[in-house]
Specification:
Elements (H helix, E strand, L loop, with lengths): L3 E6 L5 H8 L5 E7 L3 H11 L2 E3 L1 H6 L5 E4 L3 H13 L3 E4 L7 H14 L3 E3 L7 H11 L6 E9 L19 H18 L2 E9 L4 E3 L9 E3 L5 E8 L4 E7 L10 E5 L2 E5 L9 E5 L6 E3 L12 H12 L7 H20 L3 E2 L22
Bound molecules: nicotinamide-adenine-dinucleotide.
The site of nicotinamide-adenine-dinucleotide (NAD) has 19 residues, from helix 4.
């Protein structure tokens, strides 16, 4: 298949793994990078043998079919919309947007232009979560009845040099980490019908623990402990807690409970295992050999899938509809907490197709 030419906008921390992994897929040809800060784009261009241009030049380049948006969350909407308006398909880092209405506008704009919109995370395409998906589809735990998922931490201000944004609306533990957990749950169980939330700002101030700003205080303007309940369309019920307020926890990352067994799912912010299964009547857990490849850090897998999907005119898996559904669930946990009632989700998405077993590394299904 002819490789798809791609430009990246946003040359910060996460851009390295996209530029590295881009070289592993024959379908991907990342030719161009851009950033508001041209020096950053130039440095990445030199390191990876690509061209540095301005964001406007990426949009104007007719050879580029996909724009990867690796800017900060607050810029995702504006950068993705500009790329769609320029007739490009877009793959955005998470979250799709920081506001639900903006997410809806992106999907509508992409549909009107006849281009695709994809969104991270793509960890659900990794070997660990695809093995879990296959076990569920093959009936290893029977009918899924419930799930629990926990992201328990004390926030990033101890190590992150610029942690202010984590404590503003559009961030917090749910918008920052929730996409990994919710996307994994949807990939395994399908879409969500309604949610309920309880959210709290447990500490009004945070103190930066490292870097040039060490000792400075951050005022907290978004909930930092978010407890969510989910009703899935398949009738399973879920619990998801994301927190920047706890010092330690023994809770697992993610478990799926079925009528005949339990699946202990790996950290959904990773691509590998371990996958543990305990079936009815068994006294202990057994580690399941992973059935799928892509077990190392494979960020960019979702872009490769989008590129194949464009060529073959098939749906892409890490898609905008699922990202919008995730965004609506995250916002609805907070809204539910404020309103004191369940919230029915209005967005809909399909459970993304499972990856076939036995794909040669560097390829996806056509
Ligand atoms: N760093 C990580 O470990 C990590 C992991 C997973 C996902 N992500 C996600 O990736 C995205 C980027 O994170 P990061 O850590 O690389 O951030 P970063 O701050 O290191 O880099 C963001 C870059 O975007 C540029 N930028 C900002 N607004 C822009 C605009 N309007 N036009 C062009 N360039 C613009 C900035 O100059 C900066 O170079 C975020 O959405 C984040 O949630 C990051």
């Amino acid at each position: 298949m002819t490789p798809t030419k791609i430009g990246i906008i946003g040359c910060g921390n996460i851009s390295d793994i996209y530029l590295k992994n881009g070289q592993k897929f024959d379908i991907l040809d990342i030719t161009t990078v851009a950033d508001l800060d041209f020096k950053r784009a130039k440095a990445k261009a030199k390191q990876y043998g690509v061209k540095a241009v301005t964001p406007a030049e990426i949009l104007a380049d007719p050879s580029l079919e996909i724009v990867i948006n690796l800017t900060i969350p607050a810029a995702h909407y504006e950068v993705s919309l500009a790329a769609i308006d320029a007739g490009k398909s877009v793959y955005s880092e998470k979250p799709l947007a920081t506001r639900l209405d903006d997410g809806r506008r992106l999907l509508a704009a992409a549909q009107a232009k006849g281009v695709r919109i994809g969104c991270a995370p793509d960890t659900f395409l990794g070997g660990g979560l695809q093995t879990c998906r296959k076990l569920i589809d093959d009936g290893a735990i029977g009918r899924p009845v419930a799930a629990t998922a926990f992201m328990m931490s004390h926030g990033p201000e101890s190590w992150h040099p610029d942690p202010e944004f984590f404590y503003q609306p559009g961030a917090g533990p749910m918008f920052d980490m929730g996409p990994y957990y919710l996307t994994a749950l949807i990939a395994m169980l399908g879409p969500i019908r309604r949610v309920t939330g309880m959210a709290e700002i447990s500490f009004q101030k945070r103190i930066i623990g490292s870097g040039a700003k060490k000792g400075q205080a951050i005022a907290v303007h978004t909930p930092t402990h978010v407890t969510g309940l989910l009703d899935f369309a398949n009738d399973a019920v879920g619990t998801l807690i994301t927190s920047f307020d706890v010092w330690g926890s023994h809770l697992p990352h993610l478990e799926i409970y079925g009528s005949t067994g339990t699946l202990a799912v790996p950290d959904p912010n990773t691509f590998g295992g371990p996958v543990l299964l305990r079936q009815a009547g068994q006294n202990d857990w057994r580690e399941v050999k992973l059935t799928h490849s892509y077990t190392e850090n494979s960020r960019g897998l979702g872009v490769a899938d989008l590129a194949y999907a464009l060529r073959s005119d098939r749906p892409h898996r890490a898609n905008g509809a699922m990202a919008l559904h995730v965004l609506e669930a995250m916002q609805s946990f907070l809204d539910s907490s404020q309103a004191g009632r369940h919230i029915e989700l209005t967005s809909r998405c399909e459970q993304p197709a499972a990856l076939p077993v036995g794909l040669p590394v560097g390829t996806l299904d056509e």
